[in-house]
Structures are given as structure tokens and as C-alpha cells.
Known about the structure:
This protein has 158 residues and is an alpha+beta fold. 26% of the residues lie in helices and 30% in strands.
Amino acid sequence: MSDHDAFVTWTVQPDADFPKGRYSRAHRITFDGGAEVLASAAASVVGRWADPAGIDPEEMLVAALSSCHMLTFLDKARRAGFVIDRYADAARGRMGEVASGRKGLVEVVLRPDISWVGPAPAPEALEALHAASHAECFIANSVRCEVRIEAPEPAEVR
């Protein structure tokens, strides 16, 4: 298989009171290709100690599921002879209790909106493409929460 690296860096700020939990949760994540993002805990978890400009881990997981599904779907649709002009997804993850006293993502809903060039797949073929893409998505195969795909009916040919 392959390795996938991320380098996470956090540094305490001069005005922080670390022992009392009064410190910024903002940090940087640098990926193996050089991309860098500002990250933070979610404000819903740590309140004012979060950086609202940062991407929280839950958002990253939802985005990873969406991205992986899209990349797998694009390839499957291409191989099936369909041409896609645009793919957009308003994905959403929902936190909840996964065990007594333990929280986690309990559901992720993918809402792909796809623009086709030429004929779009019939509804049952589209559903089969999404199901096969979900089954082969590396990230979906790595999580325990439910991942649902709520794809609208294909639009008419452009």
C-alpha cells in the first residue's frame, strides 16, 4: 500500500495559561506535498479557544469522505462512458454519542450535485455508480459512522 503524511504543529502563545486550559487550539497542518492549512478545534467543542478561521478535525473528515467519494465516482462514471462537467457536494457530518460518554461523527451525508455533458445515467445506474464508489472509497472504508449519499436525479442534457 502507501503512506500518507501530515505534519501537525502547535505552539503555545505568550498570553496563554496552559495549565488552566486557556490556550488557543489553532495549529498548522502541512501535508507531504507542501500544502499547509490553519486548523483548530471546533468552537462547539472549546468555545473561544478555537480559531474560527481554522479547519476543525471533524470538517477535515467530512471533506475527506466527500473528496474520496467524488474522485472514485468521477473515475467510475468515466469508465461507464459518462462525461461530467461539474461535481459539487454540500457534505455534512453530524456529531453524536457513539458510546456512553463518548462523542464522534455518527453520520455523514454526501449531497453530490453533478452536471453531465451528453446523456446522464438513468436513476438506477446513477445509484449503482454511487454505491460502487462508496464501496471502493478508501476513506469510507476507514470510518465507522454511516455515510449516506443523497444525490438528486440527473439534470437534463446540457
